[in-house]
Amino acid sequence: PLPTLGPATQADDAPPAPPKPDGDKPEAPAPAQPQPAPKPNSTPKPQKPKAASDLSQVDEDYWFQGEFISDGFFAEQSAGLTGLQVIAMGDGKFEGVVYAGGLPGAGWNHADKQHFAGARQDGGVNLTGDQGSLLVYTDSATLLDSAGQPVEQLRRVRRISPTMGKRPTPNAIVVFDGSSTEFLEGAKLSDEGLLLAGTTMKFPVGDFRLHLEFRTPYMPHARGQARGNSGVYIQRRYEVQVLDSFGLEGVENECGGLYKQQRPNVNMCLPPLVWQTYDIGFAAARYDADGNKIVNARITVLHNGQPIHQNYEIVAKTGAGKPETPELLPIYLQDHGNPVTFRNIWLEPKDPSQYVGSAATHCQVP
User: Fold this and answer.
1) What is the helix (H) or strand (E) element at residue 294, kind and residue range?
2) pLDDT tens-place string over residues 146-165
3) Fewer CB near the last or first residue (10 Å), C or N of the chain?
4) Residue 17 and residue 137: Cα distance in Å, rounded?
5) In a domain, 117, yes or no
C-alpha cells in the first residue's frame, strides 16, 4: 500500500510576516487558536494474498502438498488402499484428508475419510487427527495410530488427466492453441504464452462439446472463493466453476460445481499449478415461437477424465449469469482477479437437429 500522509504542518522556511508601518505600536499577539487533534493514519488495507503462477515463485511449503497412496497400490493391490491429500494453508500450516479405498476418482468409497491438521516440524509435516497422526515428507508419508505406531506407508503420486493434450476433432474450432487469439475477444497472454482468464469467445454457442485445460495458481494464504477463482460461463449463463478446491468437500461453489446449483459427483480437483482438464458436452435450452422455455439445458462434464455431471438438467441460470432467453451467447472465461491460465481449447459444434424435444436432448462426451 502507498504510505499514508500525516496531518499538514507549516514549513520551517515559511516567509516572515510583513513589517508594521512606522509609529505603530506592536500589536499584542492574537490568542492561540485551538488546533484540531491530528488524525491518526488510516489503517492500511490488508494485502491481497500472493499468487504464484509458476513453480519459480513457490515457497518451501509447496513441495509437501500433494497426493499420496498406499504402497500396496504399486504392487497392484486393489483392496485396503488408503489415499491422502495434503493441502498447504500458508506459513508452514497444513491440512490433510485420508480417504478409505484410494484417492477421489481412483478408489475412494465416497463415504469414509478423516481430517488432519498440523504444521512443518523437523524436516517434515506433522498432522494430527481424532484417530491418529501423519508424518509427511516430500515424497512419502506414514499413517500412525493413536498410540503413535506406524500403520501404513504411502508414496507420492502425480496424477495426469487421461484427456490431457486431447487433439481437436476434424470439425472442431481451435479456439486457442497458443498460436493465435483470432476467436477470442479481450484475450491476454501470460509471459509463458498461456491464455489468461477474462476473455470471451467471439462466436455464440448452441449445442457443442468442448475441451479445455486450466491451471490454478498457488495461493496458500487465500481461502474460499479467493483461492484460484475463475469459471467457464457457457452462453454467459451457466458457470462451471474453476477454483483451487484441492482437498475440499466439493460443493456447489467449488471446482467442478455448477455454481450454486449442483455439486460435482466427486471433487476431482488436483493441486494448484498442476494442469487439469474439462471435457464438456452441452445441449442448449429450447424455446417455443413465443420465446417461452420448453426444454431445459443439459450438461455433461468430465473433470480430469472423471464424470462429475452426467446429462444434468440445468434448471436456471447460475449465480451472476445472464438471464435465459432464446438468444445464443458465447462462452466467457471469467476473470475473478486470480492468475488462472488456460491452454488447448477447442470446441466442436453439434447439429441442433440431434437435440429435438426433451426425450432426445442428451449430451455425451465421447
Assistant:
1) strand 293-295
2) 999 999 999 999 999 999 99
3) C
4) 74
5) yes
Strands 173-176 and 341-349: antiparallel
Long-range contacts of 146-150 (CB under 8 A, 24+ apart): none
CA–CA distance, 335 with 202 (Å, rounded to integer) = 17
Domain finish residue from 126, 157, 188: 157
SS3 283: strand
Bridge partner residues of 234 (DSSP): 238
Sign of CA dihedral 352, 355, 357, 358: negative
Query: Is 135 a domain residue?
Result: yes
- Host domain of residue 328: 173-360
Last residue of a domain, one of 125, 157, 189: 157
In a domain, 7, yes or no: no
Beta bridge partners of 274: none
Number of domains forming the structure of the chain: 2
- Exposure on the CB side of residue 91, measured as CA atoms within 13 A: 3
pTM for the structure as a whole:
0.82
One domain, residues 244 and 351:
yes
